[in-house]
Every structure is written in C-alpha cells, then in structure tokens.
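User: For my dataset I need records formatted as: sequence, then structure tokens, nothing else. Please produce one.
Assistant:
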Amino acid sequence: MNYDAIVQHCRELLEMLPAQAVARAREKHPDVRGLAVFPVYAPVEIIHAAKLMPVGLFGVGNKLEISHADSRFQSFICSIAKSTLELFLRNETDGIEGVVFSSICDVARNLASLVKRNAPQLLVEYLHLPQNMGNSGSAAYTRAEFERFRTNLAAHIQRPITDASIAASLDVYNKVRHLIRALYARRKEHPGSIPTADLYAVVQAGTRMMPEDYLPILEAFLSEARRRNPRPRDSVHVVLEGAFCEQPPALLIDTIEGAGCQIKDDDLVVGFRWFQEHVGCNGDAMGALAEAYLHCSVYSSVRHDWRHRRTEGLLRRVQDAGAAAVVFTPAKFCEPALLDYVPFVEVLDKNKIPHIKLEFEEKMWTFEASRTEVETFSESMLFE
C-alpha cells in the first residue's frame, strides 16, 4: 500500500467499535479473541502471549449515543468514561474476553467496578501499579502484580500463558515500538513529512489489530514517509501535551496544524508506546517488564516518579524536539491533566516558553473557536 492507502486503512479501523475490530482480525485469525485495554498502560505482551488481541479502549467518539451511562456517572465526568461504560451496558462485547484497567485516576477505578458489576461474564482486571518507583520493593511488587494478572487471565481462558510465549510477544512489541519511535524521529527531523493526524491514525490503529499484522504496515508507512519531502512553511513548532488517556478528535489535530502550528512531539496513544527503549528479556520476560515499567517508561500525569519530575520531562521533550511552544490538549473534566497543568505552566513561564490550552471532549464536531485561538497564538509568535 502507498502512503494514502495506509492512512485510509488505519482510519477505517478507528471508526470501528472494539468488537468490530476483533471481528475484522478474525478474518485472518479465525480463533482470535480480544481483551480490551483501557488507557494508559497495560502489559500487552501478556495479553498477546495468551493468544488474545489487545484492543485499545479509547471511548467510542460519535459512534454511539450515550443513553445508559449518564445514569451511572455524575455530569462532571470525562466523556471517555461514559462512552466506555456505554459499550458494556449495551453488551457490545462480541469476541471480547474482558478488559483491563490501570491506576489512572479515581474515575478509572470506579469505572472498573461498574463494568464488573454490569458485565459479569467478562474478566475485569484492575492493575494496581506502583507509585513509588525507587523503593527497594517496587520491582518485586510490580512483578507480583503482573503475575497476578497472568494467573487470572490464564484461569479465565483456561490455558497456560508460558514464559516463552511472553518472551516472544515482548520481541514482537519491541519491534513495534522501535518502528513507532522511528516514525516520531522522522517527523521531528523533517517537520511536515508526516502530518500529525496521519501519524496519529497509524499509531492508534496498532491498538486495533494483531501486532504481527501491524508490523508490515508500520514498515511500509515508514518507507513511504522517508520518501516524502514537503515544502517548508511558516509555522510555530510545538509539543502537544495532555492527551494521554482520552484521545482528541483527529479534526482537532488537523485544526492545530492548519492554523499555524507544526507538532513535533506529542503524548498521543502514549500507553501503547510506553517504553522509551528496547526492553531486553535476558531469560526473564516478567522481570524485564517490571523493570521497564519502573525505569524505562515515559513521564505521564498518571505516573508519579519522584526521581524524574514530570515538569522536567516536559521541558526535555520541548528541548529535544526543538519546539518553541506547548499546546495543552486536556480532555474536559480530566483531573490528572488539569492538575498537572498548573506546575507545567509554572515551569514553562519560568523558562519563557509560550503555551496555549485547548480543552476537548469526544463528541466535539466544530473547531472554529479552537482554530481562531491557535491562529492568534501562532501569529503572535511568528510576527512579534
């Protein structure tokens, strides 16, 4: 496939509900079933080693009307929680064995309980991941939590999940993450060579297919991207921050870049590209996953690491990208993103780095106000 065909294929996958994506995968893998993964992080290697397809659960956008979930949640809850619960309340789970949540926020914790209560036929797991990365017992605790997940998943599907199969899956996902990092490096080095909306579609599509099928798509897309030589245009180079869980509509990404900003780095779909480097197995895949989570994962508003402040992570991302500004894109009512916005702004102001905040929600369909804000912001920097 050429560049445009790959992007179109990926966007079609993202228009599917999770159960529909599993049904598409079964055309090539007749016996495969899915396990839904709520952002941000879950050990997809264990899921894949169980011969299941990890399916990204990023809400449903405009594909379903919320008719049941509103009665279970307050009005001031993020839209991804409501639309995710709506999926399970409507029993849109054909081909899906269960769902795994992790320690993102109070909403995610309560959402896991609501799903378990309303979908008792499914395996519902909540990963209690550590918040003290430097403690001497953190590695053993993290490994034990992953082992608990493996044991429960194996019991649910009634077959073992071996160390060898996890090591093989780790190898596959190492290749996936390597290619995604190469795509991000290409965009950073050659701004405009990959519009962010296209990169976003290709990266998120990896959460809707088996990784073995995803690898050749990534390889082809990287090859196509390296052949593109766009004309440079006047724009402000920016970093996109704050969309780690609920993902912004692709039209918002297009609006940002169309209004005078060139995105050079972002935290979109960050949970599926969680590790910053190759994760070596060394004969102990479970131990490697635990160590990688503690020492090789990206900074995020849902992960506290007192050894490496999140504000330092944002500054480093801006500097490494050669960006001149930051565009914050928190989801409405997203507590972790909005709480982190305050210290992020403090450190950006201290370093005289301009910034702008654009809140969004799943069912947004008009972005004229955002376009005007971004145009004013970018012009103030380009023509000052």
